[in-house]
TrEMBL record, chains A, B:
SUPFAM superfamilies: FAD/NAD(P)-binding domain, FAD/NAD-linked reductases, dimerisation (C-terminal) domain
Domain FAD/NAD(P)-binding, chain residue ranges per copy: 4-313
Chain ranges passing through the membrane: none
Alphabetical keyword list: FAD, Flavoprotein, Oxidoreductase, Redox-active center
Cofactor: FAD
Pfam family, one: Pyr_redox_2
Example of a GO MF term: oxidoreductase activity
Domain Pyridine nucleotide-disulphide oxidoreductase dimerisation, first and last residues per copy: 336-438
The protein's name in its UniProt record: Flavoprotein oxidoreductase
Record-stated family: Belongs to the class-III pyridine nucleotide-disulfide oxidoreductase family.
InterPro entries per record: FAD-bd_OxRdtase, FAD/NAD-bd_sf, FAD/NAD-binding_dom, FAD/NAD-linked_Rdtase_dimer_sf, Pyr_nucl-diS_OxRdtase_dimer
C-alpha cells in the first residue's frame, strides 16, 4: 500500500517538495495531498509591487505553476481553499476546513511537509472596518489594492507603513501610479537591511523620486470618514491619506505547528536539521518562510523569508522525502532590490549583526563607477565591506549604485560563502572590459581599501 | 646614495610598479626613471574600439594618468619617446634611443622593471606602403584610423582580419560608423575564446548587425590602387575594401629581454615568480603583457594580455620593489565583451583547454532569463559549465545573453577561483528580486544541470 505525504501549504516550498518527492517516488509508492488555504499554488509574491505599479500588466504572469499542472503532470492531489486547522502527530492526521464548500476533511499521513509560509505583521490599529487598508502578501491582497486604486473616488494620496523591501518597493509602485506617497518608518531610517550610511543613499533616491520619508515615527491609529480611511495617526499628528499599505514585514506562520507540539527555534520559526527534517518529530519536514536556517557567517539561526530560500529548501526536503540525499547549506543573507534606477545589494552581516555575533571588524566604504570612467553610462557605485580583524575575513558587503550594481553583490556573496579574506579578494580575476567595469573592478577597489584599513591598524 | 629603478615601458604595468615602489620609498632612497617609446603613459588600449565608433568622443578620455602626474606627484622621471634598445645585465645599464630628439642615452640601474607589453601580430602581407591598413594597439594607431575614416574619399567598406575580442569589437565599431563590414577569420569560427556552440550565438548576433562573417578563410595578400588598399586577397578571391583593420592578436614583446639573456617561459613570454621577479636574474622584475602567468585551473603557464592583469602584476612588483610583500595569485582566464547588445563572458577552461590539461569533464548548456520571466526586459541567457568528473569541480564557464549577462561571469569566476564543485554551487545564496533574476538564478540553474549530468553518469 502506498505511503501518504501531506503537504500543508501549497506555495513555493511546499510544491517544490511535493514535486521533487514525486520525481523519485511514483503514486503506487507515495500518494501526495497538498492543502492550500489560498486560491493559488506557487505564485511570486515578490512580483506584486510590479503588478501594482502596472509594470507587470497581468496577475496570471505572477503564477509560476497552476494547480492543474501539479495535478496532471505530477499526480499531486492539490486542494485549494483548504485550510489545515489541526495536526495530530500521534494519530498521524490533519484536519482541514474547506473554505469554499464548507465542511471539514480529515486525512491521515505517513509523512508531513509543513510549509505554511509567513503571515504579515498587522498591528492592532490596522484591524479596521474602514476601506483602503491593504496588506500585500497574496495575489488577492494585490487585486484588492488595484481595485481600490482604480475605483472612484480615485485615491490621490497613499501612506506606506514600514520601510523594508516591500514597503520601499510599494512606495515606488504607488508613486509610479501618480499618487502622492508618504513612507512612515518607526526606526531611525528605512532600508535597515543595509547599514545607515548606505541606507542614506537609498533614502536620498526615494526623496528624489518625490516620496516623503518620515522616519523615527510610529503609526498609532487610523482615522476614517464614510467608511474609508482618511488618515494615519502618529505622534506628530495625522497624515491624511486615501489608502494605507502595510509593509511591516512578516513573521513565521507557526501557530498550527505550535499547537501540534512541533518545536520552534530561538528565532521563533521552526527548527530543522540540514535535511529540512524537524528534529525529534518523526517524518515531519518543514521548509520555506516558516522555518529558521543557519546563517553561515554568524553561525546563528535566522529567519529570512525569501522565495529563493523557500524554493531551495523545498527542493531539499522533497529529495529527502523521495529517498534521495540533499542538505540545505544555510544562508548568508544576500538580497537585492531597487528604488527606480537605484540598485541595492547586500550580503552577510551588517555592522550591528557583526557586533552582535561578537566579531571585531573594520568597515570601509569605497566609491567607484559601474563602467570605465570614459565609457558612456558609467555611473557612481558605492561599495561597503566589513572585514574581521585581524584575519581579514569578509563578513559582509553592501552595494548601492545607479546601474549594474545590485547583482554585483553575487560576486561578493560567493567570496563570502567561501570564507575569503579581503587580501585574497584583491587578487580575484574578474571580468574587465570598458562597457562593464573599470580596470580595477569596484569589488577589487573595495577589497584593497579594506586591506589598507586592516594594515593601518597594524593588525 | 639613492638606488636606481629603471622601468622599461611606461604603460599600465610599468607605471603601476613605479608608483607603488614610490609609495614605499622616497627619492632619497630610490630614483625612478621610466622609458616609454610611445607618446603616452597608462592609456586604455581596450577603449580604442569605442573611440573609433565615436561612443567615446575624445582621445584624452582614454588616458588614465598623464606623464606630468607621474613626474610631479610621484617624482618619477618619465621619458616619453625613448625606446630602450639594449639591456646590459652585467654592467647594469640600459641604452635608450631618443626617438624625438635623436641620440642615445645610457642609464645605470640597480633594479630593472621590464614592462614592454605586447606587439600586435602582423603577417608579411600586412607590411605594405598602401594607405588604409591599420593596427589598433596604440592611441596613434587609433588616431590614424580615425583620420582615414574621416578623410575624403570616405571609406565605405571595411575588412577586419581576425575574430578575437579586438576584431569583433572593431567590426562593431566600424558598422556603427556606417561602413559595410566583413570579418575574416582563419579558424572555423570567430570568438574562439568561447567554445564553438557558444561562439555560434555571437556569430549569429554579428550577422544580425549586418556584419559579413567569413570564417575558415585566410588573408594572403592585399591589392592596392593609387597607393590605397583596394582589397584583401583570399583563397576564395579578393574581398574589395577601402580599409583593413588587423585584429590578429598580440605576442609578448620580449625581443629585448631575449637579447639580454632574460629567460622566457614555455608560453614564449617572460617567466616570473609569484612576486613578479625574473627567477635567476638578480633584481630584475617583469609584469604585464610581456609575462606569462599561472593558470590556476590548468596549472599551466599562460600568456593572457589584459589590462586588469597588467595593473595587478605591476602593483605586486612595485610593492615588492618598494620593500613590501605581495604575490600575484595567477589567473583563471576571466574575460567579458559585447557585440552591440549581446554580452559575452567566460572564465576558466574551454573544452579544448580542459582536454589539453588532461581533465575528464561534463559540459552542459542551460537556457534561462536575465530577470523573472514576467518582469519587463527579461532576456534570454545561455550558460555553459564544464565540471570535472567525478569530482564535480567547476573547470570553466561561459555566458552569452542579451542583457545583464557578461558580469554574471564574475559569480562563476569567484566560484571557480575557490575550487567549488557544481554541487556546492547549487546552494549558493545569490541575490533574488524580479528585476534582477528569476527565483532560480541562471547560475544556479546551470549548476543544477551540471549536477544532473554528473549523476546521469553514475559518477
Amino acid at each position: 500500500m502506498a505511503q501518504r505525504l501531506i503537504v500543508v501549504g501549497g506555495d513555493a516550498a511546499g510544491m517544490a517538495a511535493a514535486s521533487q518527492a514525486r520525481r523519485r517516488r511514483d503514486r503506487r509508492d507515495l500518494e501526495i495531498v497538498a492543502f492550500e488555504r489560498g486560491h493559488f499554488t506557487s505564485y511570486s509574491a515578490c512580483g506584486i509591487p510590479y503588478w501594482i505599479s502596472g509594470l507587470v500588466p497581468d496577475r496570471d504572469q505572477l503564477i509560476a505553476r497552476d494547480p492543474e499542472t501539479f495535478r496532471t503532470d505530477f499526480d499531486i492531489d492539490v486542494r485549494l481553499r483548504h485550510e489545515v486547522t489541526g495536526i495530530d502527530l500521534d494519530r498521524r492526521e490533519v484536519v482541514a476546513r474547506d473554505l469554499a464548500g464548507g465542511g471539514e476533511v480529515r486525512e491521515r499521513f505517513d509523512t508531513l511537509m509543513y510549509a505554511t509560509g509567513a503571515v504579515p505583521i498587522k498591528p492592532d490599529w490596522a484591524h479596521t472596518d474602514a476601506g483602503g487598508v491593504f496588506g500585500i502578501q497574496t495575489l488577492n491582497d494585490g487585486a484588492a489594492l488595484r481595485d481600490w486604486l482604480e475605483a472612484e473616488p480615485k485615491p490621490r494620496r497613499a501612506v506606506v507603513v514600514g520601510g523594508g523591501y516591500i514597503g520601499v518597493e510599494m512606495a515606488e509602485a504607488l508613486i509610479q501610479r501618480g499618487l502622492t506617497v508618504t513612507l512612515v518608518e518607526k526606526a531611525a531610517q528605512p532600508m535597515s537591511t543595509v547599514d545607515e550610511d548606505m541606507a542614506e543613499l537609498v533614502v536620498g533616491a526615494m526623496r528624489g523620486l518625490g516620496i516623503t520619508v518620515r522616519a523615527g515615527l510610529s503609526v498609532t491609529g487610523l482615522e476614517q470618514r464614510d467608511g474609508r480611511v482618511s488618515a494615519v495617526v502618529t505622534a506628530e499628528g495625522p497624515i491624511p491619506t486615501d489608502v494605507v499599505v502595510l509593509g511591516l514585514g512578516v513573521r513565521p506562520n507557526v501557530a498550527l505547528a505550535e499547537a501540534a507540539g512541533i518545536p520552534l527555534g530561538p528565532s521563533g520559526a521552526i527548527r530543522v536539521d540540514r535535511r529540512m527534517r524537524v528534529p525529534g518529530v518523526e517524518d515531519v519536514w518543514a521548509a520555506g518562510d516558516c522555518v529558521e536556517c543557519l546563517h553561515r557567517v554568524s553561525g546563528m539561526p535566522v529567519h529570512i523569508p525569501l522565495g529563493t530560500h523557500a524554493n531551495k529548501q523545498g527542493r531539499v526536503a522533497g529529495i529527502n522525502i523521495g529517498g534521495g540525499y540533499a542538505t540545505f547549506a544555510g544562508v548568508i543573507g544576500t538580497a537585492v532590490t531597487k528604488v527606480c534606477e537605484l540598485e541595492v545589494g547586500r550580503t552577510g552581516l551588517r555592522e550591528r549583526d557583526a557586533a552582535a555575533a561578537g566579531f571585531e571588524f573594520v568597515s570601509v566604504i569605497s566609491e567607484s563607477t559601474s563602467r570605465a570612467g570614459y565609457y558612456p553610462g558609467a555611473r557612481p557605485m558605492t561599495v561597503k565591506l566589513l572585514a574581521e580583524k585581524p584575519s581579514g575575513r569578509l563578513l559582509g558587503a553592501q552595494i548601492v549604485g545607479w546601474s549594474e550594481a545590485a547583482k554585483r553583490i553575487d560576486t561578493l556573496a560567493v567570496a563570502l560563502w567561501n570564507g575569503m579574506t579581503v587580501d585574497d579578494m584583491t587578487a580575484l580575476d574578474l571580468g574587465y572590459a570598458p562597457p562593464y567595469a573599470p580596470v580595477w573592478d569596484p569589488v577589487l577597489i573595495a577589497a584593497r581599501k579594506a586591506v589598507d584599513a586592516l594594515a593601518a591598524l597594524g593588525r
